[in-house]
Design a protein that fits this description.
The longest helix is centred in the middle third of the chain and has 17 residues. The chain is built from eleven helices and 17 strands. It is an alpha/beta fold. It has two domains: 266 residues, Spore Coat Polysaccharide Biosynthesis Protein SpsA, Chain A (Alpha-Beta Complex), CATH 3.90.550; 84 residues, no CATH class. The strands form four sheets. It has a five-stranded mixed beta barrel. Strands 12-14-16-17 form a four-stranded mixed sheet, with no helix packed on it. 29% of the residues lie in helices and 28% in strands. The N and C termini lie far apart (45 Å).
């Protein structure tokens, strides 16, 4: 398969609530330098740029974030930014992008990926995507990437495989028997002991024809809604009526032609502040410190803390352990590391009590 046949769809409409107060409605997580010097969406684009030219990269985002996409990816043609009028989860996002790609290249193959993951090395990821594309060209299948687990993680969905089918460019292709929602600890431990289970990375590869047919078969109301666009309906009138389901539930869990390729290199969805030590170097005391825009962090007798400061702010820590401390120009967050997931609860309160801080 030649590279010009390969499109990429970057899903960039998320709100990144677990990274409040740095992640806001005006500039959510994917547009922040959370994992490196560039924004996460810029790093995602750079990761696939060697195998997908700019004119074949589509970004699906919220209408309010279109300008942020243009700032982060100036090389992207303006017509390649698809602006969702309302958030409707990933199934409408994927289906809309597929319908748009079909107009341009009906015989194409797509890689669909979130804008806010850390994956290294990039060359290994590119090889996996190209191998999956080979399989998508040869077979009428829907491919997903699964991460070889190194712990019984309870925050991820799992993919159970049922045996290796073949290799594409020396990369194994597995049959998929089922998807499993986030398990409790005991069940996750059983998965690892049994083997054949992978974390669901939420990254997909398929031919445009295969995903279009799968959406029509498994989510006919979604397919019918998008078909109205071809007859002249406005996306603003259609999108809010589409079923709000994740693509995993709407299509992948219902299909019987699903295949998986493994990710056995570094992958991290950077789901909360607690994930930062996994993607950044630590100091000798186990502290993870990130700054931007002239900010500074001073730590004395401090261990295993995660600190993030921006906009010229200063954080000073003395004699504390296992904290997350985040300071922006108008908000400060402090909580224990092991309660990082509870930031989302703060965001829910803010929606009712202080929406100006979202």
């Amino acid at each position: 398969m030649s590279n010009p046949d390969l499109f990429a769809v970057i899903m960039a409409g998320g709100s990144g609530t677990r990274f409040w107060p740095a992640s806001r409605n005006a500039r959510p997580k994917q547009f922040l330098p959370i994992s490196g010097e560039s924004s996460m969406i810029a790093e995602t684009y750079a990761r696939i740029a060697p195998i997908v030219p700019a004119d074949r990269v589509l970004v699906v985002t919220a209408g309010s974030q279109a300008e942020l996409v243009r700032e982060a990816l100036p090389e992207l043609p303006s017509e390649n930014i698809l602006c969702e009028p309302v958030a409707r989860n990933t199934a409408p996002c994927v289906a809309w992008a597929a319908a748009e790609i079909e107009k341009r290249s009906p015989d194409s193959v797509q890689v669909v990926l979130p804008a806010d993951h850390v994956i290294q090395p990039a060359a290994a990821f590119q090889a996996t995507v190209l191998a999956a594309a080979e399989e998508a060209v040869a077979e009428d299948v829907l491919l997903t990437l699964g991460v070889l687990p190194d712990s019984p993680h309870t925050g991820y969905g799992y993919i159970e495989t049922s045996g290796k089918l073949r290799q594409r460019s020396n990369i194994d292709v597995f049959a998929v028997s089922r998807f499993v929602e986030k398990p409790d600890l005991q069940r996750a431990q059983e998965f690892l002991a049994k083997g054949g289970f992978y974390w669901n990375a939420g990254i997909f590869v398929w031919s445009t024809a295969s995903i279009r047919a799968a959406v029509e078969k498994h989510v006919p109301e979604l397919h019918a809604g998008l078909e109205k666009l071809t007859k002249g309906a406005a996306i603003e009138d259609i999108y809010a009526t589409l079923p709000a389901e994740p693509i995993d539930v709407a299509v992948m869990e219902r299909a019987n032609n699903v295949r998986m390729l493994p990710i056995d290199y570094v992958w991290n969805d950077v789901g909360s502040w607690a994930a930062l030590p996994d993607v950044h170097e630590l100091d000798s005391a186990g502290n993870c410190e990130l700054t931007s825009d002239g900010a500074k962090i001073l730590a004395t007798d401090t261990k295993n803390c995660i600190s993030y400061a921006e906009d010229g702010r200063l954080i000073a820590l003395v004699g504390v352990e296992d904290l997350i401390v985040v300071q922006t120009k108008d908000a400060t967050l402090v909580l224990p590391r092991d309660r990082a997931q509870e930031v989302k609860g703060i965001v829910e309160r803010l929606k009712k009590e202080a929406p100006d801080f979202l």
